[in-house]
């Protein structure tokens, strides 16, 4: 256990070194330093700025991140304000972890199968209410404004921010604050936003920044739902990286630096918005108004969160239906016949993708969980968490645009022949999985009652024995939850697998996203559902453990009552 003190610097090194190398690689390529003549060149930037439609691509990447964060955070905050402590809140809270496990690609495909002109939603009301007997020529998916992409991002980010806010809620002391506001005559919603939300937002600011950075540079969802004439900047960078013409690599590097600049601008816009909102809140608090439109806001928030949850789950059901549909013509609401033909034909390829994703996920998540536990335990024994003033360093990999980091790393790995290896893919998955595992466990570790381990120490147990025999078993549910989340994050990683794997390491996710440009919905349904099922399985142990604990608690209460 003396080795615990090395855990925090080791974790920091394993996260910072890849990021630093990625930036070195991207800078060297963008400025022509890899050519070996030692001369700095700006030709790559000139070529990148001359790309057709670049202005539209950059504007999409600039606004869509803050917009997705604003809509997701606003909806989550309104729902917390209106329904905290109610049956509706507990019911939807139980759904959020399984919904969060749905990979981005599967969620995107499911949403597309629902809202497309030939999707299930229009089928359910056709032709009786619409008079349509064939799909209308409506531009819903891949619209130039990126609205369908924005919808897909909100669909995925609401569960993430919901669970992050739920974990941070004890820090805001919500019940006491809301009780005080209620005694002063404030309604639930207004009282929450004036007293609880400022403290809650301070605790979840970093995850919100991660949502902004991720949404503005997302690739898999953009390939499925986003515009393609022109696409977002991140998609264009991936196209340049995959171009067989090696002269396009420096152009991709220059475009990656542009993506980094756009992300920083998005975060700056958000910071300016924070200052504006702080002034609005201060002015509103001094106005003396106790509530305005409380009922409408409460029910709108419930309808919004409930609709997103329903669409997420319905999308997975539609994926399953398409995977077993023998024929499904518009406007039929249900397939004419069901068949397992696609599963039988594709099972060898699906099983191979599932096996690779499982192996990578288990290795990356096990390493992330072990190191996160070591870092937190080292901080607990030292009396404070390491680098407590620099927590953002542990979350840096999810604050940096993936495409920028990976473009540089992929270039550096080509020289020593490390690209396209399983070890490299597992290592890069670790970089992106660790922040989620650490943030999840960091919400539980400080709340552990140390008197339990102190009692073991007084009975003669060593610190190591007290940790392994007392503390770990008592924290098994949070650990399993963090492991499940980390595994789901690994399964969903498309860009790291695609770029570092160099197309030679394929998982169920890369196989599924590669089908986005095709038109076979049955294939997409099979791969998307298989991907989702794998991510769901990771959350099964904590859910079963939680159900068992509730059953035993109920039996104990009934036994005492008798």
UniProtKB/TrEMBL annotation:
Q: Name one GO cellular component term.
A: plasma membrane
Which domain of life does this protein belong to? Answer: Bacteria
Which SUPFAM superfamilies does the entry mention? MetI-like
* Transmembrane residue ranges: 60-84, 145-169, 246-270, 299-325, 345-378, 390-414, 426-445, 466-489, 524-548
Where does it reside? Cell membrane
Q: What's in the keyword line of the UniProt record?
A: Cell membrane, Membrane, Transmembrane, Transmembrane helix, Transport
- Annotated signal sequence is none
A GO BP entry is: transmembrane transport
Where in this chain does the record put each ABC transmembrane type-1 domain? Answer: 354-545
Q: Does the keyword Membrane apply?
A: yes
Q: Does the keyword Transcription regulation apply?
A: no
Q: Kindly report the protein's main subcellular placement as a broad class.
A: membrane
Membrane topology term reads: Multi-pass membrane protein
Q: Which InterPro entries match?
A: MetI-like, MetI-like_sf
Protein's name in the database: ABC transporter permease
């Amino acid at each position: 256990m003396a080795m615990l003190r090395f855990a925090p610097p080791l974790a920091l090194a394993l996260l910072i070194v890849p990021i630093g190398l990625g930036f070195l690689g991207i800078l060297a390529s963008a400025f022509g330093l890899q050519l070996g003549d030692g001369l700095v060149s700006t030709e790559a930037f000139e070529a990148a700025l001359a790309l057709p439609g670049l202005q539209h691509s950059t504007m999409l990447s600039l606004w869509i991140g803050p917009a997705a964060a604003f809509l997701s955070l606003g909806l989550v905050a309104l729902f917390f304000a209106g329904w905290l402590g109610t049956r509706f809140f507990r019911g939807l809270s139980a759904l959020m972890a399984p919904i969060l496990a749905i990979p981005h690609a599967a969620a995107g495909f499911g949403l597309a199968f629902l809202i497309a002109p030939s999707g299930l939603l229009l089928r359910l009301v056709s032709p009786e209410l619409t008079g349509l007997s064939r799909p209308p020529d409506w531009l819903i998916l891949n619209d130039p404004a990126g609205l369908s992409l924005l919808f897909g991002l909100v669909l995925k980010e609401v569960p993430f921010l919901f669970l992050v806010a739920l974990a941070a809620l004890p820090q805001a002391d919500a019940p006491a604050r809301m009780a005080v506001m209620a005694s002063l005559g404030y309604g639930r919603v207004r009282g929450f936003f004036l007293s609880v939300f400022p403290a809650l937002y301070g605790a979840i600011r970093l995850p919100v920044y991660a949502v902004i950075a991720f949404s503005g540079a997302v690739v898999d969802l953009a390939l499925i739902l986003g515009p393609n004439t022109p696409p977002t900047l991140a998609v264009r960078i991936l196209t340049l990286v995959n171009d067989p013409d090696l002269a396009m690599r420096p152009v991709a590097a220059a475009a990656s630096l542009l993506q980094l600049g756009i992300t920083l601008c998005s975060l700056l816009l958000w910071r300016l918005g924070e200052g504006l909102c702080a002034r609005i809140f201060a002015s509103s608090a001094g106005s003396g108004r106790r509530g305005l439109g409380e009922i409408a806001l409460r029910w709108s928030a419930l309808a919004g969160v409930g609709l997103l949850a329903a669409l997420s789950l319905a999308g997975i059901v539609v994926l399953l239906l398409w995977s077993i549909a023998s024929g499904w013509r518009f406007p039929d609401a249900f397939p004419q016949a069901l068949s397992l033909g696609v599963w039988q034909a594709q099972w060898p390829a699906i099983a191979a993708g599932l096996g690779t994703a499982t192996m990578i996920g288990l290795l990356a998540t096990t390493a992330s969980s072990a190191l996160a536990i070591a870092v937190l335990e080292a901080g607990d024994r030292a009396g404070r968490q390491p680098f407590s003033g620099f927590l953002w360093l542990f979350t840096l990999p999810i604050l940096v645009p993936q495409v920028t980091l990976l473009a540089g790393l992929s270039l550096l790995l080509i020289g020593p022949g490390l690209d396209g290896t399983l070890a490299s893919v597992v290592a890069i998955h670790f970089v992106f999985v660790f922040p989620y595992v650490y943030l999840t466990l960091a919400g539980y570790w400080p709340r552990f009652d140390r008197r339990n381990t102190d009692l073991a120490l007084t009975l003669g147990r060593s610190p190591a024995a007290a940790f392994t025999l007392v503390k770990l078993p008592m924290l098994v549910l949070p650990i399993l939850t963090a492991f499940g989340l980390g595994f789901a994050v690994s399964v969903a990683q498309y860009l790291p697998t695609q770029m570092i794997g160099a197309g030679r390491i394929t998982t169920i996710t890369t196989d599924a996203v590669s089908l986005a440009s095709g038109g076979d919905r049955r294939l997409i349904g099979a791969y998307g559902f298989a991907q989702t099922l794998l991510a769901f399985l990771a959350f099964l142990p904590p859910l079963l453990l939680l159900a068992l604990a509730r059953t035993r608690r109920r039996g104990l209460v009934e036994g005492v009552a008798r």
